[in-house]
Amino acid sequence: MDDLYRDEILEHYRRPHNFGTLPEPDASYEGANPLCGDRITLMLDIDADGLVSDVAFTGRGCAISQASASMLTDEIRGRPVAEVAVLQGRDVLELLGIEISPARLKCALLSLDTLQHAVAERGARIAAASHGSVDAGPGSAEAATAHEVRA
Amino acid sequence: MTDHGTIDAAVIRRDFPLFERDFGGRSLAYLDSASTSLKPRAVIDAVNAYNTRYTANVHRGIYATSEEATAAYEGARASVRRFLNARETAEIIFVRNATEAINLVAYSWGRQHIGQADTIVLTELEHHANLVPWQLLVQEKDADLEFVAIDDDGRLNQQSFEVLLRTRPKLVAFTHVSNGLGTINPVREMVEQAHAAGALVLIDGAQAVPHGPVDVQALGADFYVFSGHKVLAPTGSGVLWARRELLEAMPPFMGGGDMIREVHLRRTTFNDLPWKFEAGTPDIAAAIGLGAALEYLAGIGMDNVRAHEKALTDYALDLLPREVPGIRLYGPRNSTERAGIITFNLPGVHPHDVATLLDREAVAIRAGHHCTQPLHERLGEAATGRASFNVYSSREDLDRLAAGLRKVQRIFSDNPDVRAVKASAAAPAHDKASSAVPAAPASVGGPS
C-alpha cells in the first residue's frame, strides 16, 4: 500500500550500509536538517587515482534520510570523485525509486547535500594547500583540516 | 451531557465546512489544532460579509459602509474584551498574531525599561516566539536571560523559579499552556510571586485562549497575548492585552496612519489607546472574524470547551498506551494539568515517517520540534509527534490516530512474520497488531 515505505527503503533504514566512521577520512562533513533534526556525518577516503576508495556515514533521522544515505554511499563507492561531485538530486530520487512529497524532499536530499559539502571542502582545502606553506605536506594539512571539520 | 463532556462533537462538526471535504471516503481527522484551528461557518460568513457587503476602511470614511466597517471592527474589540474579561476595550490591541504582540512589547516596553545587566526570566517550555524577541532585546541592551527549568514531566520547576526571582528580574515571560507538552502552568501563583519580586509579567496565551476560560484580571498579569487563528479565527488576527497604565506609558511600536492625532512635518502627536499601537490599515476582515469566533465560542461556553478537551485528553492518555504498545508519551500525565495536546514518539520510528504514514490515513498531526527546539533538547529528542485538539475534536479522531499508529508500527516492525502479515492486505489490522508488535511495556513516564 505504501510505495514510499517499500521494503527496500525500510531494509536500508533498519540495516544501513556503510554505517560507521573512517579513522582518517580525506573528506568529511556533518550535514543537518534543523527542521526535523535529521543529521548525517559523511566520510570519504579518496585514493591517488581520485576514486572513492571507502565511504562511511553516521547519523540519525527519518527512514527517508537514512535510507537515502545508505543507498547513496553504496552508489559512490569506487567511483571517481569528480563524477560524484556532480551528482544531482534527481539521481538520488532515482536511487530511492519513490515519490517524495515536497515536504519530505529535504529528508531525501540531506545525504547528497552533505556529500557535496564534503567534496567541495576537500577541493577548497587542496586548492589552498597548493598555494600555501611548503613546510607541511598536503597530506598532513588535509588530515588536520578534516578533524577540524568534524569537530 | 454526552459521554465526553457537555459538547457533542458530531453536532459541533457540522459548523466546520472542512469536515465536508472528502479524504478518500472519510473526513479528515484533524489533530493539529495547536498549529492552527479550523474555521466555523460563523467566522467564514462574518469575513465574507465584510468583503462583500460593507467593504471599507475603518475610522476614516464619512459614508455608511465605512461606518459599518468601523462598528464591526470595534465590535470585535468589544468581543475580545468580554472574552478575556479585560477592564476596557482601550486595553485590547489588534495585532497579526501572538508573535507580533510579544515583539511589540519587546520593542516598545522592553527598549524603554530593559537596560544593561537587567534580567528577563523565561522558561525552558517557551515557543520560539517567546524566546527570540527577548534574545534580540538583551543583545541590544547587554542584558541577561534566565530560564526556569522544567521537571521530567514537563512542569515548571517552582523552586527554580523562586531562585531566579531572587535575581530581581525586570520581566518574567512564560507560556500559559505549553504548545510542546500541553502543560498548564500555575499562572496566577507565579504572577503573584513575580510581582512580589518586583517584576512585570507577560503571559503567552496562544495555547490557552482556545482551550478554556481566560480572565486576565483574575490572572493578574501585566501583558497577555494570543493568536486569533488558533481560536477559530482567520490568520492575521491576534491580540495584545496590557494594563492601561503600561500602554499609556509605552512609546508606539510602529508609526503611520491611524495611530496619530496630528502630524506635522517634524512632529506628531499620537492617537488614544488602543489605536496608538495600530498603525496603518489593519487586517479588518480578520479582526471581524476574530470577534465572530469568540462569540461562537462564548455561545458554547469555554468551561464546556475545557471539559470536552479534558475528557478527550483523559481518553487519549488511556487509549494510546493501551492500543499502541511501546508508545512514549511526554508531559504531565494528569489532564487537570494538561490542555488538549498529546506529544509522543514511537521508538525506532522518526516522527516525520509517522506523520507521512498517518497522512495516508487522513490523520493530520504535527511532527518536528513544534517551534520549541530548546524544549526538545531538554527532552533529549530531535523531534516528536504531536496530536492536538479543539472544540470539534472527537474520540473517533483519536481512535483513528491509534489505528494509524498501529499501522506505522506494523510497517516499521523488524519482525519478518509481521512483514508477511503486512503483505496480506485482507488481514484485519487489530488482531495482527497485538500479536505482531513486540510486547514492549508502554513507556508512559517522562522523557528518559
Descriptive account of the structure:
The complex is a heterodimer of chains A (151) and B (448). With 151 residues, chain A is an alpha+beta fold. Chain A has one domain (3-150): Sufe protein. Chain: A (Alpha-Beta Complex), CATH 3.90.1010. Chain A contains six helices and three strands. A three-stranded antiparallel beta sheet of chain A has the order 1-2-3. In chain A, helix 2 (63-76) crosses helix 4 (89-96), helix 2 (63-76) crosses helix 5 and helix 5 (105-131) packs antiparallel against helix 6 (138-150). Chain A is globular. The termini of chain A are far apart. Mean pLDDT of chain A is 85; it is low at 134-151. Chain B has helices at 9-13, 41-52, 64-84, 98-113, 132-141, 158-165, 187-196, 216-219, 244-249, 284-300, 302-323, 351-359, 373-379, 395-412, 416-423, 429-436, and strands at 29-30, 92-95, 119-123, 144-148, 171-175, 200-204, 223-227, 238-242, 260-263, 268-270, 328-330, 341-345, 363-364, 366-368, 384-388. Helices cover 40% and strands 14% of the residues of chain B. Chain B is of the alpha/beta class and 448 residues long. Chain B has a seven-stranded mixed beta sheet, sandwiched between helices. A four-stranded antiparallel beta sheet of chain B has the order 11-12-15-14, with helices on one face. Chain B has a two-stranded parallel sheet with strand order 1-13. Chain B starts with 8 loop residues before the first helix and ends in a 12-residue tail after the last helix. Residues 416-448 of chain B have low confidence and may be disordered. The longest helix of chain B has 22 residues, at 302-323. Chains A and B meet through helix 1 of A and helix 12 of B.
